[in-house]
Design goal:
800 residues; ten-stranded mixed sheet; 19 helices; 30% helix; six-stranded mixed sheet
């Protein structure tokens, strides 16, 4: 027997990195007593999350096969891997890894124990060449406790007479045990003294280090496979102490894999059986609808009802370290509302209500929501995205329209709706960042969501008897709606001539636009090199403009929309083997470099299957059902082997060394919950014959009745300098004021006191509707509470 060594050399090891974000399996037990989630790729276990879904605790756990003759094979790199769910809609997985040289086969089943925080793997090893005794099978586990790979500690210990592999970091512990003995076990520092180094060098664990502290650590152990025992069960338990983690793992082993499996499957069958029957088989041989519903449910928090993270992945994770704490396992309010729509479309209105309640709890005092946040509500990124401030209102309205938010329940959410509406009123129509979390200004997508939300909030306020506030919101929505084309419809003359169109909606116009989009303006392009960091605003196109149809503000055959669709297809459509998939916008840099290397702050954006789903909804709204169905098939063919939708797909010739294949998932996030929600909603929309989540208020008000606006609104974040004749000028302010104004260059003046809107703003309507074109209104403010003048005059010209 080899002597154990105290401490592994080589601290702290190489810099920690995460692993592939291209998952082919995600799972959890749908049990509050099992706060643990797992991910799979390349035939092995990747990130495991505990005790909350935003807390990654491992990098990966895989096997290495060696022989005394120098043979070395790592299953995640040297095998052909097939991952399949046990049955449709149940994210419990069977994995078959066959060595590419034909030497062995590894078969696994992966679940979590519904009764405790433990991931179970049943692993069988079969030699295909030679006999069992020729091979050594060792496992490698890389702890990354609480979203970090550095400053972890690992050691070999015991619990109830069993040898345990332990690790800790940031007050969390894991314990790995096996129902077969370990032949050898060691802790080490990655890149120096870890088990992989020993196996690569000599084919076995010969230096059994007992501890590796405060670094990027790894655990390794050889499993005692034999002819009589070719199957082992691995239990990876978690806890707040080492003994809690070990007790959890031991209890799972004692209870047995089959018992845990039966409970796991029963939980999922029960939930899936409660859903709408939108089942659909795809080219993958899987039920794509059940895959999508399982993805949504597998991304829910166990201890915080209504919280759903964007993806259990870290995009391009193999190139990311501890500086990327959140990856995509954070909550984006936009993605969360999209997920709620997916749950509702699938028939789970209780989860959609839970999401609305979670949003109510994490709303900030100002009325907005953080750009993204941890499970407990703590903001992560500091941006302000106005669509995220509006989406929760649309969710409340959708739940009400589907009969799941009656008067008594609605009362609980009216403070949230009032506060969010007030924030939009005071801070719209421009946004600090668009939905791609980049540029500020007038975004067609954001405008569509804001306006639809104001109309929805007005309906809800009317039901509560707040007619004056409802009217104020509708008047604002009318004013903004009437100016969408002035703010965002332009176009490069050369392109417009080539396509025979008058113009197109731009991706975003700068915050200084106020009166009309300036063709001479520029749009920042993030994630690009300095020489490509700005493009003319009129050159930058995005499918985002289709939101004007999706949210009911413009008809599908509106000439502005039809022209924009031509421009989108000319500039952003990628015709891939599965069909058309679209890019986010002109010049996008969020994607792999041309040589396939990972996005590192710059790159080249790739097509998004999500956008194919959005385009299908547009086609359905336009009455082209066949086109929508074809795009549904395209979207499904863009999924990975297991039916998971990636954020992006590769659009260039195959790069096998980079695992990039034409038309297949790229190295970005997979699965993307937002894309799976869009898929479910598209299935429901096709079943219903109409767009499931289209708000009706705008359709009725702007498409059918063509309601005009009788005013123009001036505010400090939208200082219009011109307005048409025949309209009232409304000044919308954050504080109470006296408006000192004149229409004849201060020869005569009028003082008008502002009124409270009831929505945290104050406003004054200046009756200038009878003034002739060419006249000007000049005004300033005396702020009552502060007792001071603004000390600046503002001017608005009549006649645009």
């Amino acid at each position: 027997m080899r002597a154990a060594l105290d401490f592994a050399p080589g601290a702290p090891g190489i810099d920690a990195r995460w692993t592939s974000s291209a998952k082919n399996g995600v799972g959890t037990a749908l049990s509050k007593t099992s706060p643990v989630w797992f991910t799979l790729s390349h035939g092995i276990l990747n990130e495991v999350y505990y005790p909350r879904i935003d807390s990654a605790c491992t990098r990966d756990l895989g096997l290495v096969v060696t022989r005394d003759d120098g043979y070395f094979s790592e299953e995640k790199r040297d095998c052909t891997s097939v991952t399949r769910p046990f049955e449709s809609g149940i994210p419990a997985f069977q994995i078959t890894n066959t060595a590419t040289d034909g030497s062995y086969r590894i078969e696994k089943q992966v679940i979590t124990d519904p009764a405790r925080a433990c991931v179970l793997q049943q692993v069988s090893f079969s030699p295909l060449k030679g006999k069992m005794g020729d091979y050594r099978v060792s496992l490698l586990l890389a702890p990354h406790l609480v979203n970090a790979g550095n400053l972890n500690s690992a050691w070999i210990g015991e619990y109830e007479g069993r040898q345990i592999l332990f690790a800790t970091g940031r007050s969390r512990y894991l314990a790995l045990i096996c129902d077969l003995p370990w032949r050898a076990a060691s802790a080490g520092f990655v890149g120096v003294s870890d088990g992989w180094q020993q196996l690569r060098r000599v084919g076995r664990i010969i230096e059994e280090y007992q501890r590796a502290d405060d670094g990027n650590v790894s655990l390794a152990a050889e499993i005692d496979f034999s002819e009589a025992h070719d199957t082992a069960t691995l239990a990876l338990g978690f806890g707040q102490t080492e003994y809690e983690a070990a007790a959890c793992a031991v209890a799972s082993l004692k209870s047995g894999f089959r018992h845990a499996h039966d409970g796991y499957v029963a939980n999922w069958r029960s939930w899936q059986d409660s859903l709408e029957g939108l089942d659909r088989d795809t080219h993958h041989g899987v039920n794509s609808y059940r895959v999508s519903t399982a993805v949504l449910a597998a991304h829910r928090a166990a201890d915080r009802p209504g919280a759903v993270v964007a993806s259990l992945s870290i995009p391009w994770g193999a190139s990311k370290g501890d500086d990327d704490l959140g990856g995509y396992h954070l909550i984006w309010p936009r993605d969360l509302v999209e997920a709620a729509g997916g749950f509702l479309a699938a028939g789970d209105h209780e989860e959609a209500l839970a999401i609305l309640d979670y949003l109510r709890q994490v709303q900030q005092p100002s009325g907005r929501w953080p750009q993204n946040l941890w499970l407990d509500g703590k903001p992560y990124w500091p941006g302000v995205q106005m669509d995220e401030c509006a989406f929760p209102i649309l969710l409340a309205d959708m739940l009400h329209r589907h009969g799941h938010l009656d008067h008594a329940a609605r009362a609980d959410y009216m403070p949230m709706i009032r506060s969010a509406s007030a924030y939009i009123l005071a801070n719209g129509p421009t946004t600090g960042e668009d939905r791609w979390e980049e540029d500020a200004g007038y975004s067609p997508f954001t405008l569509a969501v804001e306006i639809a939300a104001l109309l929805a909030a007005a309906d809800l306020l009317d039901m509560e008897g707040d007619a004056a506030q409802a009217t104020h919101l509708r008047q604002t929505a009318d004013c903004w709606n009437e100016q969408i084309e002035r703010w965002t419809f332009a176009g490069d003359p050369t392109l417009c001539s080539e396509l025979d169109i008058s113009g197109h909606y731009v991706r975003i116009a700068s915050p200084g636009t106020t009166d009309a989009v300036q063709p001479s303006g520029t749009t920042p392009i993030l994630n690009q090199t300095p020489d490509r960091a700005f493009l003319p605003t009129s050159d930058v196109i995005s499918p985002d403009a289709l939101a004007l149809v999706r949210f009911g503000l413009r008809a599908p055959d509106d000439p502005h929309i039809v022209a924009t669709v031509k421009a989108i297809d000319h500039c952003l459509r990628a015709d891939l083997p599965q069909g058309p998939v679209w890019y986010r916008y002109t010049g996008d840099g969020y994607g792999e470099h041309p040589d396939g290397t990972a996005f590192d702050g710059t790159g080249q954006g790739r097509p998004w299957p999500l956008l194919t789903g959005e385009r299908a909804h547009y086609e359905l709204a336009a009455g082209r059902r066949g086109a929508a169905e074809a795009l549904l098939t395209t979207m499904e063919k863009s999924a990975g082997q297991s039916g998971l939708f990636p954020e992006q797909v590769w659009d260039q010739p195959d790069l096998p060394d980079r695992e990039l294949f034409y038309g297949h998932p790229s190295g970005s996030a997979m699965p993307l919950v937002w894309a799976h929600a869009e898929h479910i909603k598209l299935l429901r929309s096709l079943a219903d014959g109409s767009v499931f989540d289209m708000p009706p208020q705008g359709v009725e008000r702007y498409i059918r009745n063509k309601t005009p606006s009788h005013l123009r609104i001036w505010c400090f974040n939208n200082k219009i300098s011109a307005m048409p004749t025949g309209k009232v000028l409304r000044l919308e302010l954050a504080d109470d004021a006296i408006v000192h104004w004149s229409t004849d260059g201060w020869a005569t003046t009028t003082d008008t006191s502002t009124m409270a809107s009831g929505l945290s703003t104050h406003f004054a309507d200046l009756p200038v509707q009878d003034m002739a074109a060419g006249g000007t209104i000049v005004f300033t403010f005396y702020w009552r509470d502060a007792g001071v003048w603004e000390n600046e005059n503002f001017t608005v010209r009549l006649g645009e």
